[in-house]
Write a structure and sequence with these properties.
This protein has about 300 residues and is α/β, with parallel strands linked by helices. The protein has two domains: about 230 residues, Spore Coat Polysaccharide Biosynthesis Protein SpsA, Chain A (Alpha-Beta Complex); about 70 residues. About 50% of the residues lie in helices and about 20% in strands. The protein is built from ten helices and eight strands. An eight-stranded mixed beta sheet has the order 7-5-6-4-1-2-3-8, sandwiched between helices. The longest helix is centred in the last third of the chain and has 34 residues. The radius of gyration is 25 Å and the shape is elongated.
Amino acid sequence: MKIDIVFSFRNEENNIPELVRRIVQVMNSLEDVEYEMIFVNDDSKDESFNILTEFQKDYPISIINMSRRFGVGPCVLAGFEYSQGDAVVYMDSDLQDPPELIPKLVEKFRNGAEIVHTTRTEREGESGLKMWFTKQAYRIINSISEVELPSNTGDFKLLSRKAKDSILNTNEYDPYIRGLAVWVGYKQEFVYYKREKRFSGITHFSIFGKGPFNEFIRGLTAYSAVPLYLALFIGFITVLISMGIITYSLLTKLIGISAPGASGILISMSFFNGVLLITNGIIGIYISKIYYQVKGRQRYIINSIYKSTK
């Protein structure tokens, strides 16, 4: 059996040595398992690549260098397409997700699971505010989505080759991989663990950064058209409100009461303009997804590949 471990990384020179050491220790403890570490370099500007080329002399490591920064999702897909193992594990490179959990994932895979998720019971080094926002984001997504995303289950998973190929065959330009891992179906299992704080450096996904926001929007719109129907519902409500305002204005005019002045007009205009902007924004998100999909562009471009010689 061969297990590939995929890492998307950017500027992780302080984490890579410890990450490689722990992966090697864990994988060497598994019987009848070959492995390969696939590092996808998202245009790092530090010494990460040079460090990996040194490790490559002693360990089964392949390095995929992207032509520019594409983000975590495209890098993970590049690792998936390169992988030829019986199963692939993908995880972050900051050591918040412990490599020591991999044997449990492999055990469940050997017992018939096609997809093995890891679910966090605790999360060290993260604020209560971030945890609250994360919980609410999952709640909102699950309330409208056609697939049930397991809470506190991130990007540390094992996928069989069959499940991995099913995800790749969707050919979505901007895939929400967490959701696709649920959407494809097959037998799914869970492993629970305590997430550690980042080993070194600062997170690339601060709570108020664009990364978490983009992930939320991607998850919200990837498996549901409910926001579009919500925009239609809001439109009906505003029409009813406007009809009420028109009726009120006519009645006040007929019975001789002065009609509302400029302040009332400004308030109503501001309200309706706000509603229009919200609904147009929702529609715009879906149109942008169609726009990028129909253009048929590559999801990523690889600059170079340094294959493992071990």
